Amino acid sequence: MSRGRAEERAPVSLIVLAILGAGLFAVPLLGLIWRVPWRQLPALLTDDVVIDALGLSLVTSLTSTGIALLLGFPLAWLLANREFPGRRLVRGLVLLPLVLPPVVGGAALLFALGRRGLVGEPLYQTTGLVLPFSIWGVVLATTFVAMPFLVITVEGALRNLDRRYEGAAASLGASRWTVLRRVTIPMIAPSLIAGMVLTWARAFGEFGATITFAGNLQGRTQTLPLAVFVALESNRDLAVAISLLMVVISLAVLVALRERWWKP
Amino acid sequence: MALALAGALAACSGQSAEETLVVSAAASLDEAFNEIATVFEEEHPGTDVLLNFAGSSTLREQILEGSPVDVFASANISNMDAVVEAGEISGQPEIFALNQLQIAVPAGNPGGVDGLADFSNEFLLLGLCAEGVPCGDFARESLALAGVVPAVDSNEPDVRALLTKIAAGELDAGITYVTDVVASGGDVEGIVIPDEFNTVAEYPIATVSSGTSPELAAAFVELVRSETGQAILRDHGFASP
After folding, report:
1. Which one of A161, A179, B132, B234 is CB 3.0 to 4.6 Å from A234, fit for a cystine?
2. CB contacts, 8 Å: A133 with chain B
3. Is 1.10.3720.10 the CATH number for A43-259?
4. What residues does B192 pair with on adjacent strands?
5. What per-residue confidence (pLDDT) applies to A33?
6. Cβ atoms of residues A229 and A94 within 8 Å
7. A-B contacts (CB, under 8 Å)
């Protein structure tokens, strides 16, 4: 009863501000839907540009997520479990892409891994490999921007883990790998999945680092966000159609994970 | 509440200058318009010129979507025409500068590029402005005139993004304006495109009818077209009409 009364007394100003806050997300979405050319939509969505960009976006965002898992999980594990010199510095480095404008990240990648970059130049001279303007450039840019989400989510989960279970497994003779595989990973699985989804979503929507480092070429480096950007200037209906496609895909992922984020 | 916030914001912006003039200009005008804006602010104390640089097609979309802009300077006529047709321009657009295309290569020309024909070379990393962006459309016209089917590696969103990648040595060549090569200050070398394949880009300028300071906007356009403005533009490689 008392709880019900507390709910009745939500301050009016709070409600007004909350509605404004929700409106900030809802109004642009409505603006987009308002502009959708519904009749031409099937033709627009089967345009070569869209098919190429969708395929490229799916391949690169999933590859980025895989690489983020491969490299980010060990990084998170070490950050959570081991004291080592420079640990704070490493954590700061990992968090940096979260606050850095992606275009700065893209420029930094260009100066490091471009054909004339710090690492890129010797790489090019010894192997002939050029990362910018290639699909690997896209994967690198999206991984750079998205991997922090995996690291911080997994690290947080590992820190909050009840260590006694791992201890018990070890005392029963399980090797360190077995403990990791059979105890630790299953216990943090929900966070691991959440981290992977966040990483994937960030990679899927990446724009600034990609266009700066990997350029923009249909079928090779033009992901969906780049296709929207370019189409806005030449074919607005196409831009709106691709935007709608991205909204639908992102919503589908959110709905699929509603158990995790929407549960009250 | 919202009104109070809006009032506070207005008060804040009012402190820095009495009036603000928003000038949307093609990316290739960056250096020249910064100098012209400085002269304008000196001539009109209390006025703050806000320069908004992007590809002309982006600027066109911003105006068509109702962004508050007082002056529009486009790098080609078609983007200006689209804004005129939408009834967003007061008066007639005037051509205030001419520009030409040039092949831009990194200093030292590591790719050994010597003409438009090299743009079909699969082994070079080549960039153009995207289609719809004036420098992209002009470049494609030029290549078509020369009978070259380009093997493009990147379609950049505006001419300065393209120039940056050439200056960094990541692209072996691209097609930019003569003025961009001048602006790069030695990081980029220009290779002349023969007149028969080249286009003369005409830059129109006009005041936007929904602008909030029409008199200042007209004064800015006048300054750009005056001898002072034209001299600044010539310093940056433009030709006068």
Report:
1. B132
2. 125, 153-154, 170-171
3. yes
4. B102
5. 94
6. no
7. 68
